[in-house]
Amino acid sequence: MLHESSPLPLNIAQTIICILTSYCWSLFDDAQLANACFMQYTAKQPTSAQQPSTQPQTVREFQWQRYWATNPLQKIVEEQGFTSLSPTDRRTYLNLTLARNPREVEKLSKKGQRELWKQLSEANIPLRSAPRPEDNQWGSDKNGRDIGDYSLEEYAAYKKKNFRLRELELESRIFKDHRKWASLGTKNSLTGEGYTVSQDDVEAEKHRRQEMAFLNEELYGTRTETVAQDPDWDDVVPIPQAEPEGALASIAYPEDYAEGTGWSSILLSWGNH
Question: Are 260 and 241 spatial neighbours (Cβ–Cβ below 8 Å)?
Fold first, then answer.
């Protein structure tokens, strides 16, 4: 962790608060789904004497189940048609469609709005709808498998790793900014003291990046260069391994070889100056 001996300047603190706020909101929907999947998975399973379970087996099934639970009349309309609804349900269906469009509701008179909400209240139907699932909305994992086909247990584990990676990325970003402020001699606007980054901070960042590299490869199959995991090399840019123009046949260098050559090239170039 970074030293906390001197608080951040107000403008920097506000920036970090904005970053954290944006970060938390970006996680909100995913966290809801991951937590719901986990709770669904860990729920008490029915005994053999009970009715067979109709619990969803995949994330896709779970999302559709949530959607239909908040749109029971829509399910009937899509499967059997609008005319299959009773006169009362038809009215409820149309009123619900209207109620989910606030701008249209505002066009009604006060009396019309009261009657609308009264009818929906008597119908005892969910007013809010869960998001309708879309094809391929979950994306694919590093093996090309559709994440929507994950079991609830698999998805909960996947999102736990994903949340951890995002947390580490945010901490790493703060470390880089903190070190930049230290190099620029930025002073705390409240105490007047300069920022410092200790060797312990650098070691903590090194371990943080190693965990990030592991998670990136585990989740996305993305390989992180070994040197890039060391904060001491942040200001060094390797020379990429490239074939000369007009080469008759390009060589497919292994990743490890290309990485090593890139760093060797920059070190050699230093020796020539």
Answer: no
